[in-house]
Write a structure and sequence with these properties.
Layout: E1 2-9, E2 18-25, E3 28-33, E4 43-46, E5 51-54, E6 56-61, H1 99-106, E7 109-114, E8 122-130, H2 136-139, E9 140-150, H3 153-158, H4 167-191, H5 203-212, E10 218-222, H6 225-238, E11 242-246, H7 254-260, E12 264-266, H8 284-291, E13 296-298, H9 310-319, H10 324-330, H11 333-339, E14 356-359, E15 370-375, E16 378-379
Parallel strand pairs: 1-4, 1-5, 6-7, 9-10, 10-11, 11-12, 12-13
Antiparallel strand pairs: 1-2, 2-3, 5-14, 7-8, 8-9, 14-15, 15-16
Helix pairs in contact: 4-5, 4-6, 9-10
Length: 380
């Protein structure tokens, strides 16, 4: 049992922080309050003068899949032999002992969503995982939070000589696999318990069934406004759930996105404009969208931005007009909701995992330091 005492608690639930104690037992938060009474054998962590936050969460990255300091041998983020690869599972491509996980923890990032890159129109499933461990199976919160999907320049560039030259082709390929999956699902349902009437097993379509059945969303890579609108159009056509990822031109279509009630993962913004669709890159975007009532998460797209700088990105968004409480939610509870894991992480509440960050100042100040990071109640 551990009690973090006398810290200024920013729980990501209430806008104003309060000086409180947090009692941890068996990796969970079991009590939060002022001047908690604890047993004699309880370990006391004196957080007087410190800020106490939920563990930070990155809603979109490729951490563990690109081999820090390694070339081809460690690059497992994109399978560029087939433009439609829903059957791929990122859990099979993660190197959990890559130093990037340690660096993430040092920056207070306790949970990451990581997955395939954006070369393919459909790339495979994303995972939500903790940032500590040697075996990825033991780090998993949910090994299938979303199906990666990509619009825009990346699939055009990667497959321009392989039958995908235009945005029209990208959209058509997504529609095709969604339509085939709908048919496949209808045949399965029509067959009922009669296995002789079931359609022949199709690995790709089996992997797409959770999308068609609205069990997981399409996690849609889209920077340009028109690509976001295409994704929303197709989602409505097939009645599937989506989240929009990157949203670089979100400030140009704030009112439209506010009407859609779709979760947005904004970033990476602390980066160079490496391609044309990034020309409207700005730290004003997260605040513009949040101020309009959109559900916003701030992301690093690591390794594009190293994950330990997630909080720096939130601080820069605050500098450009985002409210501090919105920015805190954008790296805690909102990414947890974005990934569908808010029952476990994202805020400091009784019953949730004891993923806690102690800092010697505001999370938004670049000079503030992470003093301690706890994951599942253990200091890491």
């Amino acid at each position: 049992m551990i009690c973090i005492k006398n810290g200024l608690v920013f729980d990501a639930v209430h806008e104003m922080p309060e000086k409180k104690d947090i009692l941890i037992e068996e990796g969970k938060i079991v009590k939060i309050g002022q001047e908690l009474e604890v047993s004699a054998d309880c370990e006391i962590v004196d957080a007087e003068g410190l800020h106490v936050y939920p563990g930070f969460i990155d809603a979109h990255s490729h951490v563990g899949t690109m081999g820090s300091g390694i070339g081809f041998e460690g690059d497992d983020v994109n399978e560029m032999t087939d433009i439609l690869t829903p059957q791929l599972r990122i859990i099979d491509g993660i190197q959990p002992m890559d130093i990037v996980f340690e660096e993430a923890r040092e920056g207070g990032v306790t949970t990451v969503c990581t997955g395939p890159g954006s070369a393919n129109v459909v790339g495979g499933t994303f995972i939500a995982m903790k940032t500590v461990g040697k075996r990825v199976d033991d780090m998993v919160i949910n090994d299938r939070i979303a199906m990666k999907c990509a619009f825009g320049e990346n699939p055009k560039r990667c497959y321009r000589d392989k039958n995908n030259y235009s945005r029209m082709s990208t959209a058509a390929k997504l529609r095709e696999i969604l339509f085939k999956t709908q048919e496949y699902d209808a045949k399965i349902k029509a067959a009922g318990d009669d296995v002789t009437k079931r359609p022949s097993f199709d690995f790709k379509l089996e992997a797409m069934l959770p999308v068609i059945r609205r069990e997981i969303p399409l996690k849609v890579h889209a920077h340009r406004a028109d690509d976001m609108f295409t994704a929303l159009r197709i989602a409505k056509e097939f009645n599937v759930k989506i989240t929009l990822e990157h949203v670089t031109e979100g400030s140009l279509i704030v009112d439209e996105l506010a009407k859609e009630n779709v979760m947005l993962a904004v970033g990476p913004t602390l980066s160079h404009r490496t391609k044309f669709e990034l020309k409207n890159l700005s730290f004003k975007t997260p605040g513009d969208l949040a101020n309009a009532g959109c559900h916003v998460s701030i992301i690093t797209d690591a390794p594009v931005i190293p994950q330990q700088y997630l909080r720096l990105c939130a601080g820069l968004a605050v500098k450009e007009g985002m409210k501090e409480f919105d920015a805190l939610k954008a790296i805690t509870i909102h990414p947890a909701e974005h990934a569908g894991i808010e029952d476990r992480v994202g805020s400091l509440e009784v019953g949730k995992d004891a993923d806690i960050v102690l800092m010697d100042g505001s999370v938004f100040e670049s000079m503030s330091n992470v003093v301690a990071t706890y994951i599942d109640g253990k200091r890491v």
